[in-house]
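ESCALATION

Customer reports they have been waiting on this structure for their group meeting. Please prioritize. Original submission:
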Amino acid sequence: MNYKIPRGTFDILPPQSAKWQYVKQSFHKVASNYGFEEISTPIFEMAELFERSSGESSDVVQKEMYRFQDQKGRSFALRPEGTAPVVRSYIENHLGMQAAHSRLYYMGPMFRYDRPQAGRYRQFYQYGVEFIGSNHPFYDAEVIALEMDFLSELGLKKARLEINSVGCSTCALDYDKALREYYKPHLSELCTDCKTRYELRPRRLLDCKVPSCKAFRTDAPSQFDYLDAPCREHFDQLCGYLELMQIEYTINPQIVRGLDYYTNTAFEIIYDDLGAQNSLAGGGRYNALIAQLGGKDTPAIGFAGGFERLLLALEKEGIEIAKPLKPDIYLVLMGEIAQTTGMEILRILRKRGLYAEYNPEKTSFKAQMKAADASGARYAILLGEDEIKENSLLIKDLSSGNQNKIAGKALAEYPF
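Update from on-call: job pushed to the front of the queue and completed.
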């Protein structure tokens, strides 16, 4: 049997794995600078969690969730997104009782049965943050600033921010009515999914990717014309904070996001050079979700981004991260006694946090030095009969050719 990887998934192989580690560590660093702490949730949850949070009519629930039943007939789903599991954990573990504000971030695989293409997979890796506990627009801006700082930390220069307000449940009633009136003469021209959206969730009409449906967006009513005074004030204050933080933005009234739980602020980070799949990250407020899932009425805001598209964007800008792994030190050992002593040297170096390499299959001095040069190591440690007798080591700088003899006991402190 010739086994192959499932469609829509991929292996992360060296040296690409080093790039993945780099962006993960960079996100951890930036999130920590903002006071966020990591949370990890299971990769599968009760299917009902996502049906209630994402909306039963959403594409995620209707088409994309990987569902399965366990031996007891209970319905579970591989997580298609990260917010609902974090909220479930927040409620279940009473995090709201531990602090007024919860600053949480996560990283991990998500799963959606989708049509694979560049930057879109059936198993994909997300990073995200959730700020829970306040409706103040400062925190909207702070969450956005965290993501922009993360992209800046990686060196990206072409990412741009688009923001919108999708209003509240009160605003949505009038806006949904206006959208239905606008789309009603075009119903026969809409795709099958949009005909369903027209009845159940009209604002999702603006998020359809079918070209014939996208054409109607241009003249569609704007959510801004239907915002009530509190929602308008919240958005204006968000814009003010972004300007104070010197974060450039564009207002895009057609950002609606694909999940039902969003309220007020919605935003996306766009990278145009990626083509159709050009969203690096996106998110917004979900002030009603925690109560909807059984917790206390608690406002929150967050975002999620994909590592796959992020790495594609870094390639587009020619940004080199996580250079190929090279040894710090290569051991050249001549003779049986040197090989025995060399094992202790390897342990000392590695305990110091240095990458030390040795190849026991290469026995001649010439072959070992050739391997040392080919490895890209900065230094070689040479140990032969003379060094054994003197209880010394010869350290060679492979870039300059300079050599330095030291006492064996000095190795633990030598400044490599």
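Sent to customer with the following note: The CA atoms of residues 130 and 302 lie 4 Å apart.
Escalation resolved.
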